[in-house]
């Protein structure tokens, strides 16, 4: 078994670069990015937070699949549970794209 994993900092940088590469064809939700980069969704969200903070990524708010309500204030990480307008729980998660 060979272990050629790079330094932790190096690895983070690489994952962020992968995310940016994927988002070039975006937008994608954290779940989709998780599958595309083969990282856990939690890890993807950590990196997305960092990229958002650095201004390299833009978040599109979650929206309601029932009435189209946009969760403008909850653009980051976790998706909301249900729509305050129509009470639907069919919520489209926030998606991420390049600014
Ligand atoms: Zn709704």
Secondary-structure blueprint:
Blueprint: H1 8-23, E1 28-29, H2 30-37, H3 41-53, E2 58-60, E3 62-64, E4 70-71, E5 91-92, E6 95-97
Antiparallel strand pairs: 1-6, 2-6, 3-4, 3-5
Bound molecules: zinc ion (ZN).
Residues 64, 66-67, 69, 83, 85-86, 88 line the site of zinc ion.
Tell me the fraction of residues in β-strands, as a range: 15-25%
What are the low-pLDDT stretches, counting only 5+ consecutive residues below 50?
none
Bound molecules: zinc ion
Shape: elongated
CATH topology: Arc Repressor Mutant, subunit A
Q: List the secondary-structure elements in sequence, H or E.
A: HEHHEEEEE
Kindly state the percentage of residues in helix: 25-40%
CATH C-level label: Mainly Alpha
Question: In words, what does this structure look like?
Answer:
It is a single chain. This protein has 99 residues and is of the alpha+beta class. It has a single domain, classed as Arc Repressor Mutant, subunit A. It contains three helices and six strands. The strands form two sheets. It has a three-stranded antiparallel β-sheet with strand order 1-6-2. Strands 4-3-5 form a three-stranded antiparallel β-sheet, with no helix packed on it. A hairpin with a 5-residue loop joins β3 and β4. α1 packs across α3. The protein is elongated, with a radius of gyration of 15 Å. The model has no long low-confidence stretch (mean pLDDT 87). Residues 64, 66-67, 69, 83, 85-86, 88 line the site of zinc ion. Zinc ion is lined by residues 64, 66-67, 69, 83, 85-86, 88.
């Amino acid at each position: 078994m060979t272990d050629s994993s790079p330094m932790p900092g190096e690895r983070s940088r690489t994952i962020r670069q992968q995310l940016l590469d994927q988002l070039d064809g975006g937008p994608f939700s954290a779940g989709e990015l998780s599958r595309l980069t083969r990282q856990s969704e939690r890890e993807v969200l950590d990196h997305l937070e960092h990229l958002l903070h650095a201004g390299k990524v833009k978040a599109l708010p979650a929206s309601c699949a029932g009435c189209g309500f946009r969760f403008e204030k909850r653009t980051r990480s976790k998706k909301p549970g249900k729509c305050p307008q129509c009470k639907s729980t069919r919520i489209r998660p926030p998606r991420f794209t390049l600014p």
